[in-house]
Amino acid sequence: MHPTYESPIIQKLNAGMMNKFGSRTEYTPVKFIDNVAIADLMDEYGSPLFVISEKTIRQTYQKALKAFKMRYPKVQFAWSYKTNYLDAVCQVFHQEGSWAEVVSGFEYQKAIRNGVPGNLIIFNGPDKSKEDLIMAIKNRSLIHIDHFDELYMLIEILEEMENSKACVAIRINMDTGVYPQWDRFGFNYENGQAWNAIVKIIAQKKLQLEGLHCHIGTYMLTANAYAVAARKMCELAQAYANTTGENIKYLDMGGGFCSSNTLKGSYLQGVDIIPTFDDYAEAITSTILQFGFHPDKLPLLILETGRALIDEAGYLLGTVLATKRLADGRRATVLDTGVNIMFTSFWYNHRVSPAQDFSQHAEETALYGPLCMNIDNLRESVILPILKKGDRIVVHEVGAYNMTQWMQFITLRPNVVMIDTTGKVHLIRKQETVNTIVDCEMVPEHLK
Amino acid sequence: MKIRKNIAISENGFIFNPMTGDSFSVNETGVYILQKLKDGGSEETILQNLMDEYELDTYTAEKDLNDFLSMLKSYQLITNE
Ligand SMILES: Cc1ncc(COP(=O)(O)O)c(C=O)c1O
Fold first, then answer.
1. CB A221 within 8 A of CB A258
2. pLDDT tens digit string along A109-157?
3. Which structural domains are found in chain B, ordered by start?
4. ipTM for the complex shown
5. Residues on chain B touching A10 (C-beta within 8 angstroms)
6. Is residue A447 part of a domain?
7. Where are the beta strands (DSSP E) in A242-368?
């Protein structure tokens, strides 16, 4: 019987490192996702492979919904398409009761294709074409106006459309005490621009102001910023009611809640510092409830939560392509999961686990992707058990933004599967082939 | 290829260099190789030992041994003569 082999390693011990990496709990192998063996998934669907847990999506959604519903009577989530617009993922959210929140004509069409009724689609963003707006007006979608140019375009379009009215809201930006202030989207609160936009809308018979919208930033580490924002939204709603005698139907607080990923440069682990759904819910709902609306006239509270609802449900499985030594003696591990499909590795230090058993020994290593590009760097330094060519790894919490911001750069996008709540595996996006790319290309005659 | 004088190697893979005060830990395979070095084995014989002991193909054994020896060298635990 031969002893099991592990590549020889030597590691220098020093006090600082012992303390910092004293706990090994992070390095337990992850061999299953929702009781499905990772090895089986990769044997069948290849590597790299994105895996989405339907169960985790539903559980996370219910947790978020409960945090708000137990504090406030009228709550509605709208799924932020840009966070992950794979149809299967959107459908899980829609089944749970989410509306759709889209920021382009493309996303809008996806929502319609997914069967979302037009009046349950929130249309955000600075880029809505004339055709987009006409479609949104006809479908009675909620058009969230971003700038005066859009407001005037809408007015012009409506002049040409007989018997049509548009349901609109305005996006508001404001100082919530957080830096940087996101002031490039929407109308500013403090300088009176937001109120001017409201006055302009009031004067238009064909525009119906249904709500007010804000999205104060993303990965907001302080729940209090939402209390500040909610207060300013209430002030505007009140001013509108005082002027028109009508009530704003909804306040849309946008997205921005943290997922438990760890931001680059943060010494503390994400899970230890981020506010919970309850913290955010408390900040927002207590502000609205205490503002003094008549109990019958409380606005509907809409949330466009993205990353916090989907990050945890997404995994990326990958394979070690090579290990090497850098000039300074450090280990480098080359994986087939690069920044091309893991855009969020520019912001996060993603947790990476081995997918098979390993021995006691761990080593500091840099994690690189497969691209022949210096930027393809997943972790500058992470302590991992010794990995060798062919070993498999799991990258955690990649459900948000990766399956929409991935790039077709140097290589093709991989398969995406979803594990349903019974443990059945479904392919929900096929890996791309050369044809996926060249089918869109044309070579002029003289170059053939 | 020789282990420097005074370097203490324990069976469970703890290494101490009294000259520099540095300590290191190595895994089982590492201990195995160090033991062979201590016994005066040449690079070629250690390579063969590794292949036999762990049933390795030449490429894996050669790759790993080279890497390990280069680390020992960079930590000044072995000398070339
Ligand atoms: C208008 C709007 N709503 C919702 C979101 C979702 O944000 P998050 O993923 O931070 O929750 C975004 C993201 O940028 C957004 O721009």
1. yes
2. 999 999 999 999 999 999 999 999 999 999 999 999 999 999 999 999 9
3. 2-79 (1.10.10)
4. 0.92
5. 15, 24-26, 30, 68, 71-72, 75, 77
6. no
7. 250-252, 300-303, 314-325, 331-335, 352-354, 362-368
Q: Is the CB of A405 under 6 A from ligand 1?
A: no
CA distance A300 to A152: 27
Q: Which of A311, A336, A353 delimits the end of a domain?
A: A311
Which residue is closest in CA terms to ligand 1's atom 5?
A255
B66 interfacial to chain A (CB closer than 8 Å): no
Which of A284, A311, A338 corresponds to the end of one domain?
A311
Q: Tell me which amino acid residue A134 is.
A: I
Q: How far is it, in rounded angstroms, from Cα A405 to Cα A424?
A: 27
Residue the block writes with tokens 């599967």: A417
In degrees and rounded to multiples of 5, residue B79 shows phi and psi of -120, 165
Q: Residue B72: which H helix or E strand, with range?
A: helix B58-74
Q: What b/e readout covers A49-58, taking b as 16+ CB neighbours within 10 angstroms?
A: bbbbbbbbbb
- A304 in contact with ligand 1, CB cutoff 6 A: yes
* Alpha-carbon gap, residue A64 to A255, rounded angstroms: 12
Q: Are B68 and A8 inside 8 Å of each other by CB?
A: yes
B16 touches chain A (CB under 8 A): no
**Which chain A residues touch B75 with a CB distance below 8 Å?**
10, 12
Dihedral angle, C-alpha A84, A87, A91, A94, nearest 10 °: 60
Q: Which residue has the CA at smallest separation from atom 7 of ligand 1?
A: A255
Measure Cα distances from A2 to A5, A62, A297, A371 in Å.
Answer: 8, 51, 76, 37
The DSSP call for residue A187 is E
* Ligand 1: centre distance to CA A253 (Å): 10
The model's pTM is 0.87
Q: What is the pLDDT of residues B12-46, one digit of tens each?
A: 888 888 888 888 889 889 999 999 998 889 999 99
Residue A57 — very low, low, confident or very high, per pLDDT cuts 50/70/90? very high
Q: Which domain holds residue A148?
A: 54-311
The answer to whether residues A242 and A123 belong to one domain is: yes
Specify whether A145 is located in the same domain as A256.
Answer: yes
> Which residues, at least 6 apart from A3, have a Cβ–Cβ distance to it below 8 Å?
B28, B53, B54
Residues A231-249 pLDDT 10s: 999 999 999 999 999 999 9
Chain A residues with CB-CB distance to B25 below 8 A: 10-11, 13, 361
One-letter-per-residue 3-state SS of A220-249? CCCCHHHHHHHHHHHHHHHHHHHHHCCCCC
User: Of the candidates A213, A219, A418, A399, which has an alpha carbon nearest to the alpha carbon of residue A309?
Assistant: A399
Taking the C-alpha atoms of residue B77 and residue A364, their distance in angstroms, rounded to an integer, is 20
Q: Which of A5, A9, A329 lies at the smallest CB-CB distance from B56?
A: A5
